[in-house]
Amino acid sequence: MARCAPDRNRPRQPRQRPVIRHGHSAPGRRQLDLGRSVPDDGAGVSRPFRDGFRACRVPSTRPAAAGGGTVTPVAAARRPAPGVVRAYVALTKPRIIELLLVTTVPTMVIAQRGVPPLGLVIATLVGGSLAAGSANAINNYFDRDIDELMARTSHRPLPRHAVTPTAALRFGVTLGVLSFVWLVALVNLLSAVLAAGAILFYVFVYTLGLKRRSPQNIVIGGAAGCVPVLVGWAAVTGQVGLPALLLFAIVFAWTPPHFWALALKYREDYGRAGVPMLPVVRGVAETGRQILLYSILLVCVTLMFGPVGQMGLLYLVAAVGLGGTFIFMAWQLLRDTSEQMAMRLFRFSITYLGLLFTAMAVDAAISGPLL
């Protein structure tokens, strides 16, 4: 028989290729569907597969044109993202660290009765920052469940899942070890032991022991925030004397009014999270009375420090003026326990502590070494 010649004028039909179905199939049903096909593009590769391979091409590792430098996928993966770095910094609560260091440098000036060596100041500040960052990061780890429930803390790295809990805990412990080694090597053993003790006290006594159990959590647990003055004093003198203990007492008496004023504003937050802060457990009026009482105690301790620390007239004027303003604002808060008044006192308490310790340092530097 004669073979029929192909019709060259007939349009060429694209070859068909079988479709592989993705996903789960019913039992006994084949994944390869020979009855349904997709068109070939003429090159032997179906369009979906061709496009998929194009999308999955590995980026080139060749240098970019015009001196753009070489960027490899491995190098890009190893480079920490700015957001991750910011998250780790946020774990340390930098604002709290700044507040703690406000008391450290003036304390060193008072202990020196002048300006201490710059290298010693820097070493003490770095070691203190590492210790405070360690305590705060570990606190973030244990408080991550209640931080998710509070509007004020829901933006922190762990509630946002910017850092894993395990990574946060390792980071905090690492900072604590570094702070101890740093202070031992560059300052002295006593400063390192005091800083390590503050970390342990803050984590185990305040965070795990008192914060969720007692309305006096911040009174007792706040002692950890008073340790930086002891670290600063020990860095200069190698010991802890009576003036250092009175400086500790000043910060200790200052802490409850400072934090309770903030708790008045966020009492609903604390109540939602089940944290027994004083405004939640005892009410707004009782919190106002306690703030006034601790404010009076604070001013009394600052006046006691005058003769013990051999301060001059400059410190006395500052202690009386700032202390009188503190008591007056606490009395105003007792009469008007609104959130606005509470935040006024909270913000002033920060200014108060900074100005008071600055006045101490200037007074001590002017008067010079004790005879």
Walk me through what this model shows.
The structure is a single chain. With 371 residues, the chain is mainly alpha-helical. The protein has one domain (84-367): Farnesyl Diphosphate Synthase (Orthogonal Bundle). It is 66% helix and 4% strand. The longest helix has 29 residues, at 339-367. It is globular. It starts with 15 loop residues before the first strand and ends with a helix.
Write the layout of secondary structure elements.
Layout: E1 16-20, E2 32-39, H1 47-55, H2 73-78, H3 82-91, H4 94-112, H5 118-142, H6 144-147, H7 165-186, H8 189-210, H9 217-221, H10 227-237, H11 242-265, H12 267-273, H13 278-281, H14 284-308, H15 313-335, H16 339-367
Antiparallel strand pairs: 1-2
Helix pairs in contact: 4-5, 4-10, 4-16, 5-7, 5-8, 5-10, 7-8, 8-10, 10-11, 11-14, 11-16, 14-15, 15-16
Share in β-strands: under 5%
| CATH C-level category | Mainly Alpha
Main sheet makeup: 2 strands, antiparallel
Shape: globular
Computed CA radius of gyration, to the nearest angstrom = 33 Å
Helical content band: 55-70%
| Count of the domains | 1
Instruction: Classify the secondary structure makeup into a structural class.
Output: mainly alpha
CATH topology: Farnesyl Diphosphate Synthase
- N- to C-terminal distance: 130 Å
> What order do the strands of the largest sheet run in, or round the barrel if closed?
1-2
SS elements, strand count: 2
Can you give the mean pLDDT? 84
N-to-C order of helices and strands: EEHHHHHHHHHHHHHHHH
